[in-house]
Write a structure and sequence with these properties.
5-stranded antiparallel beta sheet, alpha+beta, 236 residues
Amino acid sequence: MNSDNEASITLGTPGCATRFRTMLYLACKNGGTDADSCLTNTWASFSGPANVCAWDDTAKSYSRALHYYQDHHALYNTTAAQLLHDADGQCLCWAELFKECLLVNNVANLKKTKVEPYDYYIAFGVKNIAFDDENPTYPESDPWFYAFNDLDMSATGIAGQNMATPNEKVFGVHWIVRRTDGSTYYDPSYGTTNTGAANFTANAVAAWEALVTGAAHWRKVTSSPSVDVTFTDYDW
């Protein structure tokens, strides 16, 4: 009778809160000899997006797809444990999953970065969003041409983990990960990196939302004035 036992070789005792099998796999499958190479190689498990998969106990393989907003109820999953259990989650649980994978190899100096719309805007729309109404009538002045009903969110957008187009495109807050001794911001939900707020805006944002006379209205990100999202770092 033969038996196999999976083993993970880490840089010392793992610092993650719980040693979930999938976390150990994602952190170790590409190897690494120090914190820098472990960061790079762990990110390779998310980058692309890589369409991250968790352990499937029935199939006995890492083949259970983890999704970024497969369903709108993903909004309520905010931890890595919930993501691993339900196979669907919002940005905060994806950020935590990546952070916990890094802690498997004790990669230090990690922050969660809160991405928010600039100033008085209440939300931003992630690419791609189209506008149904070619000649909107309210309000009359640029740039607030578009009401919420003018948005067409069925357009193919930026791919998320195991989702060609995630089922949420409008956010008041988005969470990503930063290592404070580096200049790269990691967005595991989409498998992308950015160098700062302006870079994130150029790569990901399609439109801004604001309240105009009590109603939600939108303007394209390419209209004037030109603004960017804001980044704020927080401890975990």
